[in-house]
Amino acid sequence: MKKLATASLLALSLAFTGCASIETKLSTWAVSMERSQADLRLKEIVVGDFTTPYLEGGQGETVFLIHGFQSNKDIWSRMAKQLTKHYHVIAIDLPAHGDSNIMMDKSYTVPEQAKRVIAIMDKLQLTEPVHIMGHSMGGAIAFYVAYLAPSHAKSLALMSSAGVISPQPSELYLRNQKGENPLIVRNKDDYKKMLAFTMSDPPYIPSPVIATLTRISIAREKIGEKIYQELNPKYFLNPEDVLPQIKVPTLVLWGDQDKVINVSSAEVFKRLIPQAQVVIFNGIGHAPQLEHTKETAQAYETFLTSVKP
What we know:
This protein is an alpha/beta fold and 309 residues long. It has helices at 2-16, 20-37, 77-83, 110-123, 137-148, 171-177, 188-198, 207-219, 221-229, 239-242, 265-272, 288-291, 293-306; strands spanning 41-47, 50-57, 62-66, 88-92, 130-135, 153-159, 250-255, 277-281. It has 13 helices and eight strands. A hairpin with a 2-residue loop joins strand 1 and strand 2. The chain is globular and about 50 Å long. The N and C termini lie far apart (38 Å).
């Protein structure tokens, strides 16, 4: 059935490429199908000034997923297909990301976003500690949540995480030094280049989804630039002070071909969180949950089963 659906979507893609309204409908259908296959349902709450859409599904201990810069809740759908078999999964849109509302006058530093995530958790009435996983910028937000509200965290997983200075500078850092930022999309070519920059082994993505995501990314240029500027380390607490305070079981996941945040950052997390387990994937870039979904989910589930009740 899945292969048939993919083939049908591909045929429709070829037939309607270039028609924005049709592409959007096909993209919405494809995203909805992935959510359904992962047993995820779209929900929404309002916390403070922000609307927070989120995906929820499965039963068991709660796994709380936090996406990265310029991303959204659906980056987790393929991996969640594995997790919802044994866990209760929640994947949120961070404020000013995905389908959340954008407010240009607000601050989106990692500490501020972590405080908002804690408020979201409280609004969702997550009274028991949860397994928190964050990707990229979401990784930094995740460990700030564990630091600021330790009673909320049962375990912590950091995937390609921001928040520390890499011993070896990343290609993104070197590009930034030249005044370039391949993560900000201004036109169609930029989106294709961004995908190639962030992933070494990208999955198949139907053309209507690519076209729709390109339009969304171009529309997010200004808020993206603002949030990126606020990722400056001057807005962070010293990780040497924060990370040693994290006492919960921790997993660090990375791709050895990551151009966004160099894999050498994993060494820093291991040094500052001694109990952390480290898994490095060969031949994978910045998005293991998309590039090697099955292997990433398996590594995470193996870690979760090792966490004591």
